[in-house]
Design brief:
Pfam families: 2OG-FeII_Oxy. This protein has 176 residues and is of the alpha+beta class. The chain contains four helices and ten strands, in the order H-H-E-E-E-E-E-E-H-E-E-E-E-H. The protein starts with a helix and ends in an 11-residue tail after the last helix.
Length: 176
């Protein structure tokens, strides 16, 4: 998974015409990669309960393997189902990547729906900067047409978690 995160970070940098290691440098040599296996039991009233409430991820990005459809992203006042593609890794941008890209890549609000017919399992790998590492928008993404949207932040994941517990989004705490 470390190789996947490195390739992903380099590809994102290259797609933005940046030096390919710029995001890896912000994540640091001891970037955190945490795995979480998530089990959602079937529910007779899936319209009455969410598998996971609407939120954004406080990480750089999340690598997700899912065995069933259930993940939805919110865009333009509407929820969209993320299709399940067998043997594929779904990559979801997190708040810290939105900060590093000065808002070019967005951290989408997403949720997980319950299923009335079967249990659901997903495996998520959360990739975040090393503890104590300060991150901020890449200089190459800040100019007269695109002013700095975010300030430099350190240990953003902790701030994100505090807001998540209250059902709120934390990205505004990093606004420039």
């Amino acid at each position: 998974m470390k190789m996947v995160t490195e390739l992903t970070s380099k590809a994102m940098a290259t797609s933005l015409n940046l030096e390919e290691n710029c995001f890896l440098n912000q994540f640091g040599e001891r970037a955190m990669l945490q795995a979480r296996s998530i089990y959602y039991s079937k529910c007779q009233g899936p319209d009455l309960i969410l598998g996971l409430k609407p939120h954004t991820d406080g990480t750089g990005y999340t690598l997700l393997l899912q065995d069933e459809v259930g993940l939805q992203v919110f865009n333009k006042d509407k929820w969209y189902a993320v299709p399940k593609i067998s043997h594929a890794i779904f990559i979801l941008m997190g708040d810290q990547m939105e900060i590093m890209t000065n808002g070019v890549f967005k951290s989408p609000v997403h949720r997980v729906l319950s299923n009335s017919e079967r249990d659901r399992v997903s495996i998520a790998m959360f990739y975040a900067p090393e503890k104590g590492k300060e991150i901020g928008p890449e200089d190459g993404l800040v100019n007269d047409e695109r002013p700095r949207l975010f300030k430099k932040v350190k240990d953003y994941a902790y701030t994100h978690w505090e807001y998540y517990q209250r059902g709120m989004r934390a990205l505004h705490t990093a606004k420039a």
